Amino acid sequence: MGIRIGIVGAGTTVAIADRHVEGFLAQAGRCTVAAVCSRTLEGCRRLCVRHGLDGVRMTTRLEELLDVVDAVVLCTPNQFHLPYTERAVERGKAVLLEKPLGLQTAPPGQAERLLARRDARVMVAYVYRYTAVVERLRSLLRQRMGRVYLAQASQGGTRLADPAVPLEWRMRRSASGSGALGDFGSHLLDLLQYAAGVELAEAAGYGGTFLPTRRPDGQGNTCVENDDAFVFCGRGPAGRCAASPSAG
Fold first, then answer.
1. Average pLDDT over residues 59-88
2. What Pfam families is this protein classified in (predicted)?
């Protein structure tokens, strides 16, 4: 059976939970998806059906999932990441969560205290670190090319350029915290540090929302609160610079 995995959040907006399940199924024997928790049991059932999962505990309560797993994957809206991580760590579970760990509205020091715990096994899923091209780039920079003085990168998607896409939680500040900068830009900042060794000491940027209204969500909201494009530049020690646009 291996490590018993619990998936928290079964939404299909960008199918993050599905990608995690596919990864665990590819590691059959080392781990198994033992439980799924979502807002509705129907959401849990659909995730299981899509991947042919049998004998999986389905629940709408996080505590019930924590009763039967060894590790948790958080695929929920960002506002739940930090409180759910805390509850899982309190129960002795390892946690893999989608970025970010917490929102700016979290009480000061809450995330720092959590990560300072010796028993906290928590990892934010900056998955691009582990792609072959990034590993190759990191190796070349460290072994052959030497110090990086200027780095430029861009990342984005085209899904949100479609005005037919309705309002979703990523577009609401209370649920997501930030838009393109947090969604795509955070990956670029991580790769600048991980692959190129550039740590920014200061930065400036500009974000914009090109489609300020969307078709209503389930609560009747229409106004987009977060940026769907962002450009930033920064400077690190000894004048090392980075520049990067990102778009949702």
1. 97
2. GFO_IDH_MocA, GFO_IDH_MocA_C3
